[in-house]
Protein 1
Amino acid sequence: MSIIQANKLYKSFNTNSESSHTVLSDINFTVEKGECFTVIGPNGSGKSTLLSIMGLLIPPTKGQVIYKGKDITELSKSEKVKMRRNFSFVRQKPVVLDTSVYNNIAYGLKVRDFERREIEERVSAIIKKVGLKGFENQNARSLSGGEMQRVAIAMNFVLDPEIYFLDEMSANLDPKNVALLEEFINEIKGKKNKTIIMSTHDRMEAIKFSDRIAVLSDGKISQIGNVNDIFTSPKDEYAAVFVGYENIFSGIARYNKKLELTEIKIDNLALNAADRANGKVKALIKPESIGLSRKKARDTSYQNSIPAEIIEVRELGNTYHIFAKSGSSEFLTSITKLSFKDLQIELGSKIFLNFKATDIKIL
């Protein structure tokens, strides 16, 4: 059952000047009740603007936000204020009022006309949950950054609204508060009648919480799908990088019917891909899909085994990131410490990069 919908949304700023800038163009999607709908996209793609429009914080230039079958973009100012009581909005940076911790958390409940007893019960329960017991009478702006973050989290989650808007929710949180926020999200997801619309740069957040993901790039939605759709079949370069395709090469593709493979010419390299394509393409490969060997791979499952030279080595915990150059093309691969030791890799080492035709994603 649909709870909220974006219908042909556009947003431009400075529309009456030469510096007019369009941030969102022809945005369309529907969010189901009880769903966690995630918007991903690079900085400046319009994620925060989109969530602000959906949450009635700013108006669109054109288009509609449909809530439970009703266009809410044309409501009067007072009607919008009343409608926003069905929503809560968690921003990137904590925003607290210049008053006590208790009053901050109780504020949203008071303006929603909750009874005093219920306000006291809700505030008391969430203060304990976020670890602020004993801070009730302290001014929220006098707290540490981490404590202020917890006040902001409590202010939004105490409301128990129909829709939670979470804008880059963990971008500025410390690890303890990230864990606290994730606990709240899991609790919300357990309530089938609560809906989450969130934006994120964090790959693991998107995987853990999303039912569906929308990819927003240059102000337009390029793809909407479930987690598996986005992570296995990204439709644009940003989505591909987001899900881990860090090797990206431009080339010319030609499909070979006899071999049932696509040959991609990349400068002086020729790669074999399973996806069918012809003409100008981008070939994408995940670092973990590339194996290393001292000799050319004899395993016939590797349709690609190309000579390269190690140009950089980075140790990252239990893995190594290896940068290798083949001709004018640079590859990034990720290997275990054991493999690194077995291969006796060092700068200037001559190796082979091995990967399957199915490891190449073509855009």
Protein 2
Amino acid sequence: MARMAQTLVALLFVNLTSQASMLCNVPSKFWCDSPEIALKCGVYEQCYKQQWPVHQDAEVVNFTVYYESLCPDCKNFITTMLFPSFLKIGSIMNLTVVPYGNAREKQVGDHWEFECQHGEQECVGNIIDTCTIALVKNIAVYFPFINCMEASSAKPLDAAKVCATKYPVPLDAILNCSRSSFGNRLEHEMAIQTESLQPQHQYVPWVTLNGVHTEEIQTEAQDNLVKLICDTYKGSKPPGCSESLKTKQLCKKEF
């Protein structure tokens, strides 16, 4: 497993730089003109740390979203609330996404078998997302790719192939991971994180704010995530805090 992980990481670093340069057709002096351009050119983190005027003068807000890849309400929350909010106020968020949701798992020999609420294709999407997170590591790079997949109506593998042409992720390494024992173990770790929640999740998307879940936090996150994060952050507010987004839907736990 260790050798597999090392091989996948090596493929990641070879591919990321070349993909970013191919995808970004904007002159470098314009890379930090907007979050969208910065993401496309693979420099989002560098822009908000070095050129954008907001810098953290307080602890960032830890915000975690537990989801499953084909849940319609997860798709809606990620694409219409979470990702746009990340673009606006990502500099004051420590965002974590956990792709497992309402799935179930059982150990068979030396690996885990997963049963997903929306069928086998959802399990495929979950593990592709999980491998993307584990290999890319930088949320400014992998989250646009995951958002692209969530916005797609195609099967997860087909969506991944299309989205990898838009964002600089190492698709071959990700797919190799998703079919490997290494990826299987990574998805098991997502299951552990999800099943360890207190209180236990009853639906997805399920959110925690600085490690805490309440129905009030859930409602505020889905009604206006920008406001929730900005109200929680104790430092100087970034310009994005003056804007808001609204949406609310849930995918109930049926298993």
